[in-house]
Design a protein that fits this description.
Low-confidence stretches: none
Structural class: mainly alpha
Order of helices and strands: HHHHHHHHHHHH
Largest sheet: none
Mean pLDDT: 86
Number of helices: 12
Distance between the termini: 25 Å
Strand content: under 5%
Length: 258
């Protein structure tokens, strides 16, 4: 992997992790274009995840700190419940999910699903409920939307924000809850991948620290910009433009790989 490729992948991770465009799907496409296998770059993927997690923790530092100081509150329970479907799906379909990340043939399905979800999100009526209005059943359903997004091509943020708004939560709080949900999901993904490295230390052989640093910094900076851009975009009901982007990406994907 060249330095330029590391920077490009860091940029893709940071932007697509928080914009509704599926980070896994985009990274998969560029891994194929660059001739890189995810298995051979597991440490680099973990580094990118850490880079994109950093701005998330910074932007929502007050909310996260409030949860740490007072963990026994409704929001904590909602986040835990919303994370359970992701854990269950990952454990039950680990082999299937992993196999899907070695080929781009499943990406068009994910792109179509996300594009439809984004079109629906802007058509949802304006809601007035805030995060306090989220019920346990809402958290389960929103968590199911996040669980579906483990499959490549399906945007986690797009799915969860749409699902949260569909349950009657206003746009600003839907985006906030979606991003807070992504914290345990991101940490869990890193722990899972680190456990694989501990089981097979050869995966960290021949590390290129220049590329790791470049990818980390690029993911962190672009992630910070993407979070703030996304928060502003959701308020204005402009997610349909990403649906148009998905249509364009679907055409490009078919031309390149099918």
């Amino acid at each position: 992997m060249s330095l330029l490729e590391a920077i490009i992948l860091g940029l893709i991770q940071g932007l697509s992790e928080f914009l509704p465009v599926s980070s896994s799907g985009h990274l998969l496409v560029f891994h194929h274009l660059f001739g890189i296998t995810a298995e051979d770059n597991l440490t680099f993927i973990i580094t990118l995840n850490m880079g994109s997690l950093l701005p998330l923790l910074f932007v929502f530092r007050k909310d996260i700190w409030a949860l740490i100081k007072n963990p026994f509150q409704k929001l904590t329970a909602l986040l835990v419940i919303a994370t359970l479907p992701l854990i269950i799906v990952t454990l039950l379909f680990e082999g299937l999910i992993e196999s899907m990340f070695y080929t781009v043939q499943f990406l068009p399905i994910g792109f179509i699903i996300t594009g439809v979800a984004l079109l629906l999100s802007d058509r949802l009526k304006k809601n007035k409920k805030d995060i306090d209005g989220i019920r346990l059943i809402d958290a389960v359903l929103i968590g199911c939307a996040q669980a579906v997004a483990v499959f490549p091509g399906i945007s986690r943020s797009g799915s969860t924000i749409t699902a949260t708004m569909a349950r009657g939560i206003n746009r600003e709080n839907a985006a906030k809850f979606s991003f807070l949900m992504s914290v345990p999901a991101a940490i869990g993904a890193m722990v899972f991948r680190i456990s694989r490295i501990m089981a097979d230390p050869t995966l960290i052989d021949n590390l290129n620290f220049v590329n790791l640093t470049a990818g980390f910094i690029t993911a962190a900076v672009s992630g910070y910009l993407a979070i703030n851009f996304m928060l502003a975009l959701v308020k204005k009901a402009k997610l349909k433009y990403f649906a148009i982007y998905y249509i364009f990406s679907l055409v490009v994907l078919i031309v390149l790989f099918f």
